[in-house]
């Protein structure tokens, strides 16, 4: 077995390494970074607990008495890599073993950095001439890697111009095929410092710029970590495309009986609605499966819903949820372990958990019991965690650490509508979709449609819109109306379209190409079922005919959301039946709607008599009529009025700018004529069109003409709206929604989320954790390399909205004078939860005042961005932003352009900020009583930040206690809502100066020393 170090070479098999180091560009002058690297690599593996487990020594010679992390890395290659030991041959499952080991290597490194208060790992991707931000030995900072090559196209997605097919490539094959490029990059990075030669060193040798090309010493080079973090990126993105099994781990503890954030229901029922929506999001034709396991004092003995194929999941999930009731304590770890058992028995390669909890774990097994590498622990299972409650009811730091350690994200809110939105975002986090846009708004009771949500597709394999609202309505009473880039209505019944309704949601999934369309602007509106549109313009009045065609297409989309099997089309013309004359806008809209199958049969008539005869025959689902301005009263007016006034006849789209005729018909359609005519513009409310639309007169030689436009006065009848108004505020478009006495229209808060599946996936990146008051928060967002085309994007602009509290949670709790926790339906509540209930008894969302600030993000290496052009868009916020403890939300908005096509992406992250204990401001009292035993110290400790804000109760996990020699901490407990902790420590009575040091987690240099006698 060879004992000599070995080189990375392009021809060698799998030698992939992992890691990543986020660091300032002048790394060698950064003592903290240098100390962190050395401290991590020299740590004994035995000091890592169960995070990493060494294998028997396989590198020849005597095994080290205590194996360090650097030696662990070398030994792994000796044991599993036939470039170190050719006698090993090839192992089965090499690729998966590599990914698993190096993911843990990275997690261990990040955990160490977290304890030191240093930023987490970011990725550096090589390309020819790429600058290497961190120097090493004789290699200077910012040295160019002239021999580096970019990630080959075979590892990029087709939407980014690559040839990689993620649906047919296994993780094993993906890892093995990366070897030549990976090994060549190791050598190229070494060559950036000079001629590396052929020799390698042992781990104890002096630092050298060639370290990066040798398995014995590669992790000593700080660029090792930044380069190898790409492995995590590639693995995470590949798995989203694989067949996936998801377990929804569902909290049914007693606290779930508390009211939701709007007081409209319990947390339990709101969470059930979100879980049902999640099941409805699964693609019908996929092999993905979803299951449900609930927990309280213990996890359910078996899943309420075993893993079930997507096609059967919605109904099965609803049935499973119906049997769940709330009561008992909270064992989050029990729920996670139960889900692992179910996932271990499944066959799909990608395994994920959506965790929903409203509280703080108080019963074993705990989260820590589920985290690890043993077969019955989470291992590489992806976790998306959602906290449903107020900040005080949740253990945000613990849930955030869990999700991010498992490759997912954490989100939290008390609002039930936002909860459903977060379940949609967890779906995107787990699967091969990601958030394009996600506006939240209110649809007023008298408003027929929402403002548009526009999704610009770029290489998307499908376009998905998800809308949800507050209050349940009969299916179809609210719905999405979707149009393609050409303005063609999307037929919800088409073979390549999935449409699913729930009590408070509608999902539309369009597989592209749809009618040969893919890239461009797809538009969705939330609309009520429409009965009619009356337009005060003619089809040839538009200054830009294409704008008119899009407007008519939107009206047809809303009228025929369920399809209109048979349409009567009457366009009055005196000269001929020729369409498209004078820039006609309505005819193309009707034809496109027919092509889409929304109006498959169109009967066209061109004379008043033929139109009247057709109306008398009946049998139509839709009537489209366009009348000339000077036609006056007509034979069909009364027949059309009969249908309009019945409320049960065909739907009607009417263009009528006549000065007289059809008055009864117009009244039944919600309109009466006015004298306003000939105006040249109208403004939209967003429900049919946004902004302004211009009109123009048809040119006539020697004559001054005005546009054929007219306005109406709405009658005010139920369901009447005015989607377009004139400069004088007259109604140019009058709409009427279907009115049901059993389901009257009410105001609804709603969201429309667009899910992308093409290029430019944006993921939130945690820059540092934990976060404390008085420190600079650092929003960061990353686009992984497989989603970036060769040559990059032409332009990226990004900003982040930071929603922050304007008052201290800890100070609010301190005012309650709570001394002990309570119980809620068998669930023991902590002091913090109890104080939160006292401050906010309805558990209302938004009880803490907030404000939202906006900051630009950049990848230019400035304003806090770590390194230029590294695919991370960042900003360092002013320290004043993190003035108060509580929950902060980062919401990023990206506009990304390739050529003339620009599209939007969004991503969101919840961050918890705690008051940072300041040694000078915190209070300490050594409690001495007549019964005090020698060698026992009782200390009351109230941690306060520099501004006097308390850390608050039940934050022991954010404190680290270290005693001097012979001192042992026996107990730390929260004793009041003011944030006082009772500490019991023992020491040798002969010790004349026993001390206890308390430091905020992750800030070891900011410790307070307490004398115990």
Overall residue-averaged pLDDT value: 89
Main pleated-sheet profile: 9 strands, mixed
Shape: globular
Q: Count of helical segments?
A: 19
Strand content: 25-35%
Residue share in helix: 10-25%
Low-confidence stretches: 1-6, 9-30, 575-582
Total strand count, please?
45
Radius of gyration: 33 Å
Widest β-sheet, arrangement of strands:
19-18-20-21-17-27-26-23-24
Structural class: alpha+beta
Q: Cα distance, first to last residue?
A: 58 Å
Oligomer: single chain
What does this structure look like?
The chain contains 19 helices and 45 strands. The two termini are 58 Å apart. 55% of the residues are buried. The model is unreliable at 1-6, 9-30 and 575-582 (pLDDT under 50).
Summary of the model, kept short:
The protein contains 19 helices and 45 strands.
Keywords, please?
1013 residues, alpha+beta, 9-stranded mixed β-sheet, 6-stranded mixed β-sheet, 21% helix, 26% strand, globular
How would the blueprint of this fold be written?
Layout: H1 31-41, H2 69-80, H3 94-115, E1 130-132, E2 143-145, H4 171-177, H5 179-191, H6 222-241, E3 244-251, H7 267-280, E4 289-295, E5 305-309, H8 313-322, H9 332-344, E6 350-357, H10 367-370, E7 382-388, H11 396-405, E8 410-413, H12 416-430, E9 434-437, E10 440-443, E11 453-457, E12 462-469, E13 479-483, E14 497-502, E15 505-511, E16 520-527, E17 530-535, H13 545-559, E18 566-571, H14 586-595, E19 601-605, H15 608-617, E20 622-626, H16 637-646, E21 651-655, H17 663-668, E22 671-677, E23 681-685, E24 690-694, E25 710-714, E26 720-725, E27 731-737, E28 748-756, E29 763-765, E30 771-772, E31 780-782, E32 795-805, H18 809-814, E33 823-824, E34 827-828, H19 831-839, E35 850-857, E36 872-874, E37 886-898, E38 901-914, E39 923-927, E40 936-942, E41 959-963, E42 968-974, E43 981-986, E44 995-1000, E45 1008-1011
Parallel strand pairs: 3-4, 3-6, 6-7, 7-8, 17-21, 18-19, 18-20, 20-21, 30-38
Antiparallel strand pairs: 1-2, 4-5, 9-28, 10-28, 11-16, 12-15, 12-28, 13-16, 14-15, 17-27, 22-25, 23-24, 23-26, 26-27, 29-31, 31-36, 32-35, 32-37, 33-34, 37-38, 39-40, 40-43, 41-44, 42-43, 44-45
Helix pairs in contact: 3-4, 3-6, 7-8, 7-12, 13-14
